[in-house]
Amino acid sequence: MAASGGAAAQEASAVARGEYVFRAAGGCSCHTDVRRGGAFLAGGRGLETPFGTFYSPNITSDAETGIGGWSVDDFIRAMTEGVAPDGSHYFPVFPYTSFTGMSRGDLADLKAYLDSAPPVRRPNRAHDVTPPFGWRFTVGPWKWLFFERRRFRPDPDRPATWNRGAYLVTALAHCGECHTPRGLLGNLDTAFRFAGVKRGPEGQLAPNITPHKTTGIGRWSAGDIATLLKTGLRPDFDDVQGLMAEAIDNGFRYLTDEDRAAIAEYVLSLPPIDNLIEPDVKPPKSGFE
Ligand code: HEC
Do 152 and 71 form a contact (C-beta atoms < 8 A)? Predict the structure, then answer.
């Protein structure tokens, strides 16, 4: 009994660590169809993009319609290489372009956590995307052009807190997938990393989060960023909406203060990019300019 008790304890701690990884990834909100009352992680949420609507798949532990039948290696391959167990490619709407940086340990823990969540039977829905973007065989060449499998490597010249922040922002929390504009083929425009998108995922405006003084968040302190990630409140006490609010509610607010501070440290160290992202309907002009 002692041995199996030990194994169970190990499993329990993998699940607990995996839950933390899950939170740091923003709670995988895209896989729960909140608007239509869908079950937790059972997919079916429509993600509107300029190429059409992608429906997120079921990632519950159901063996048949979810990913419960996958091995840890299947899961790691999907997350870091964008390849399904049957060898087909995933569309880059699934941010494996960021998750590729995740460590094997974090991925294995995340799989343990997902396996521990309730299975839900819900077959996946086909994407509704305009050709040629909906043709899966085009993803191979796309990856050749725009995807590099690269695990996160810490920068030895930077403090540990900065490196932790860099890992969280670029790999796990995949902040750039929403905050970086995309080129005509859906590739992240690396010259404008984190510099904001007018019509990002689900058509929402994702602001410039580089520390540019006037067009980004250069006037925010590290504490302001950490507070936003904990409470959803901006320094002007306005609260964030949409996908960011979901990522905070389901994810970032559960992180340790140290991790939120590390994210802020990294974000404020980014090169400032002058990129004004204006909403379509401008609020009435205030007196100061
Ligand atoms: C799933 C998409 C998504 C992800 C992932 C995401 N964001 Fe956001 N973020 C948004 C959207 C959309 C908004 C705008 C919300 C609004 O207008 O109310 C936003 C707003 C913000 C703001 C407020 C900026 C301002 O000028 O008011 C900050 C700061 C921010 N995000 C930082 C981050 C960081 C740091 C991460 C990663 C830890 C991250 N975001 C991950 C979509 C995302």
Answer: no
Domain final residue pick, 84, 119, 151: 151
Three-class SS state of 141: helix
User: At 141, is the pLDDT very low, low, confident or very high (cuts 50, 70, 90)?
Assistant: confident
How confident is the model over 265-286, as pLDDT tens digits? 999 999 999 999 988 765 555 5
pLDDT at 282: 58
**Rg (Cα) of the chain, in Å, rounded?**
19
Q: Are residues 18 and 80 in the same domain?
A: yes
Residues 54, 141, single domain; the answer is: yes
* Tokens matching residue 11: 């499993």
Q: Domain limits at 61?
A: 12-151
* Any domain includes 133: yes
**Closest CA to ligand 1's atom 14:** 206
**Mean pLDDT score, 123-151:** 84
The enclosing H or E element of 246 equals helix 242-250
27 falls within a domain:
yes
Q: How far is the CA of 25 from the centre of ligand 1 (A)?
A: 13
Tally of structural domains, the chain: 2
Residues with CB under 6 A from ligand 1: 26, 169, 173-175, 177-179, 200-201, 204-207, 209, 217, 225, 228, 234, 240-244, 247, 263, 267
Q: What is the pTM of this model?
A: 0.93
